[in-house]
Amino acid sequence: MTHRSLLLAFLSLILTDAAAAQAPQPQGQPDWPCRQVRVPELSVAGVWAGPPLDDAMKHWRDDQGLSDLVARLSQRRTPMTEAEGLITQFAQSAGDQRKQRLTTLFAGVYDRMNDERRAVVNGLDRFGRRLKGMAEMAREETQTLRGLQDQKPPDPDAIKKASDALQWRLRLFEEQRRMVGYVCESPALIEQRFGALARAIQQAME
Predict the structure, then answer these.
(1) If 40 and its partner were Cys, which of 48, 113, 121, 130 is the partner (CB 3.0–4.6 Å)?
(2) pLDDT in tens, 146-167
(3) Distant-in-sequence, close-in-space partners of 48: CB < 8 Å, separation ≥ 6
(4) Is 63 exposed, middle or buried (0-12, 13-18, 19+ CB in 10 A)?
C-alpha cells in the first residue's frame, strides 16, 4: 500500500470511529460529543425530600461561613468521608435551627454544583464543535493533498508539505478524540457527588 493510501485509510478510520463514538443527537444539540444523554441541569426531585428550597436558594450566600462550607463540600478533592463529617459538625452547631440551616446548606450545594455541571456541559459542547472543526479541516487538507498528487507533473515539495500538515492534523485529532470518553464522565461524577451530599445532609436532619 502506498504512503498516500495509508494516509487516506487512516483518515477514514479515525473519522469513522469518531462518528461512531457519538450517539445520534436530538435536534438542536448537534455538537454534543458524548454517548450519554445531554442533561445540563441537576435534578433535585430525585435526591431531596426535605423542605422547599425557594427561600434558601435566595439567601445561602448571605452567610459567609455557610458559603465557605458549600465550596468545600462541592469540591471533588474533598473526600466524601471528610464531607460527611463536616455536615455532621454543621448540623450539631445549628441547634434548634438544624432543619432550616441544613436546608440552606443543601440549597447552596445544589446551586453551586448545578452551575458547575452546566459549565462542564457547555464545555463539552465546545469540545464537540472543536472535534468537528478539526475533522472538517482534515477532510479539506486531504482534498488538497489529492489535488497536488493528481497534478501533472507533480510538485514533490508541495506534496510533502501538504502530507506533513495532514499527518500533524490527524495526530492532533486522534489525541483529542481519545479524550472523549474521559471528559464525558465529568457530568456523571458531579451528579454522583451531588447525590451523595444530598443523602448526607438529609441524614443529618434526622
Answers:
(1) 121
(2) 888 888 888 888 888 888 888 8
(3) 106, 110, 198, 202
(4) middle
CA–CA separation, 32 and 183 (whole Å):
12
Residue 18, all three cell numbers: 469518531
Question: For the CA atoms of the chain, what is the radius of gyration?
Answer: 25
Q: Is the dihedral of CA 7, 13, 16, 17 positive or negative?
A: negative
Q: What end-to-end distance do the CA atoms of the chain give, in Å? A: 71
Q: Please state, as a whole number, how many other Cβ atoms lie within 10 Å of the Cβ of residue 74.
A: 21
Euclidean distance between CA atoms 141 and 121, whole angstroms: 30
Angle, alpha carbons 25-29-31 (nearest 5°): 90
What is the 8-class DSSP label of residue 61? G
The residues spanned by each domain of the chain are: 52-205
